[in-house]
């Protein structure tokens, strides 16, 4: 499945050749697809490893961030996070960096894996609080740790406005885009967050939250790892049931302005996903629509 014009094709044969060249001791292990995100393609390697390859050159920097910072964050967090075990280098066969991680057992958060959503919301809040409280270890909000979701809303207004217009054309009969735009504007018009900069995961949607025995077990996919203010970090709770969302809000004691800015971020990411992936990734569009419908239902 190709999602981007500048995407680099990846298949099992290519991954096998990379392993033969750089980690021959792993080259004969069983290899099978383990999912495709918007930024990376994954393969499970044997029982204990995961290979992750960026789809485009623009995504390669995310893996470098993970390779540098995840080992330093892991010792400071109670919730499990990915453990890089090999930093793959560019080659003639594949011109980008790539990574191998320890496999983390678990299933994504959803109705079939979580029974007590209030408890899950509190678990997620505790993991977020802990991550945000980790010292910066000299990191600052500079490239490559300056991802847009850790900054203010206003600079994003031009492309969000364009995405809202495109969403209105493509899904206006399915979504109340006017109401979504009002929610976006409500966030933009607020003062910028006074919160100090901290570590941010960047994309805590359910597919990046692994569950074991009904409880949050791991946070995965730190491609959006950045340093910044936490407003956008809270935006993905609209992907969860209302019970989890309320428990999360209560546990973190979020004020109304933070919640309004977080909701605006949720709108921004949702409408941009509908706009960009409308023709190429229907499953992801469905995720974005579900988020936007949840926002509209909550009001």
Automatic annotation (TrEMBL):
The keyword Transferase applies. SUPFAM superfamilies: Protein kinase-like (PK-like). Keywords: Transferase. Residues 31-265 form the Aminoglycoside phosphotransferase domain. The keyword Transferase applies. It comes from the Bacteria. It comes from Nocardioides turkmenicus. GO terms for molecular function: transferase activity. This is Aminoglycoside phosphotransferase family protein.
């Amino acid at each position: 499945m190709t999602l981007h014009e500048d995407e680099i094709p990846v298949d099992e044969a290519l991954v096998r050749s990379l392993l033969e060249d750089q980690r021959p001791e792993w080259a004969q292990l069983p290899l099978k697809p383990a999912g495709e995100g918007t930024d990376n393609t994954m393969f499970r390697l044997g029982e204990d490893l995961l290979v992750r390859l960026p789809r485009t050159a623009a995504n390669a920097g995310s893996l470098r961030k993970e390779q540098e910072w995840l080992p330093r964050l892991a010792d400071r967090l109670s919730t499990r996070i990915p453990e890089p075990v090999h930093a793959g280098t560019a080659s003639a066969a594949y011109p980008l960096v790539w990574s191998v991680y320890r496999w983390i057992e678990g299933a994504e958060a959803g109705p079939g894996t979580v029974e007590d959503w209030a408890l899950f919301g509190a678990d997620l809040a505790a993991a977020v609080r802990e991550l945000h409280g980790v010292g910066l270890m000299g990191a600052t909000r500079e490239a490559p740790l300056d991802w847009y979701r850790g900054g203010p809303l206003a600079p994003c207004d031009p492309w969000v406005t364009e995405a809202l217009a495109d969403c209105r054309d493509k899904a206006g009969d399915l979504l109340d885009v006017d109401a979504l735009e009002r929610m976006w504007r409500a966030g933009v018009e607020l003062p910028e967050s006074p919160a100090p900069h901290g570590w941010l995961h960047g994309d805590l949607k359910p597919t990046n939250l692994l569950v074991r025995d009904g409880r949050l077990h791991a946070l995965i996919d730190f491609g959006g790892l950045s340093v910044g203010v936490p407003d956008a970090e809270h935006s993905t709770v609209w992907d969860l049931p209302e019970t989890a969302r309320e428990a999360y809000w209560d546990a973190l004691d979020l004020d109304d302005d933070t919640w309004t800015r977080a909701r605006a971020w949720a709108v921004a990411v949702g409408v941009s996903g509908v706009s960009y992936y409308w023709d190429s990734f229907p499953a992801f569009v469905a995720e974005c629509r579900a988020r936007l419908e949840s926002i509209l239902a909550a009001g």
